[in-house]
What we know:
By secondary structure, the chain is of the alpha/beta class.
Amino acid sequence: MKTMTLPNTELTVSALCMGCMQCPSKVQGEAADELFNAFRDAGGNFFDTAHCYCFWTPLGDGASERALGDYVARTCRRDEVVIATKGGHPSAENYRKVDRYLSPGRIAADIDDSLARLKTDCIDLFWLHRDDTREEVGTIVDILNGEVTRGRIRHFGGSNWTAGRLAEANAYAADHGVQGFCASEPRWHLACGDAEPAGEKRREPGVLLALSREDEAIHRRSGLPVIPYSPTANGFFATGGGKRERLRTEANLARLARAEKLAEQLGATPNQVALAWLMGHDFPVIPILGTSNLEHLRDALGSVEVELSPDQVRWLRDGEDA
């Protein structure tokens, strides 16, 4: 599998990232090992989890981090993998109750928890799981740089942040000679009809965001990498569009049909084409594979062999008249 070094970091990561939200809630024990081993055997070294993952299950928050930490401790050297986790998540039912979830104390406490659960002394990439527009970006950048200085995180990024807020934060970082955000982790996939907050709603605290075309333009200008979750629209392209009813718009079904047509021409699967579409953009994109199914993972891993032209990337989304 190809690798890339994230700009302005020393983190060399695989072209695909292994998402751990389903582990151990849907896959655990030997089955989880088999899944992670298949990813690593294919050349993958990049794993993504979160402080809050599994809070909605009887396993409770932190279960995903513990499972990943245990896997790494048993199977490889720590420096053979790049671990990303997320903190700074708003309150939720069965999760902690806190208002200022990006306060210095809350971020520090989340990092404390994550380091212990992951059995590591440093997190390679620490995401802020949500933005909180009540906080000044400069204050947030300073808090995170304090954690870098303490040696508890190496680099940081923003999950569910608008590209505009990330650009504002990185302008502050450049002006003050400190580290900025190295990547963005939004929801993003070829089926753009998924519910996305619009207008003022996108700027409210804690909103879960999809990448907008305006965001794309900012990433294109800045070169800031995008590491998207739900990159195949939660099975929309892997299953003929049957799983996600709200995605079954006329535009998205046309995109699905184009993906199926191109897949047949290339000897690939529609799922692989949807992933290749993301990786075919003119800024760095590393899709997060969130599957708990080994065969689905193997199919997704094949996407790294599918290369699309700029015209094919454009055609898949916009069709003949674009």
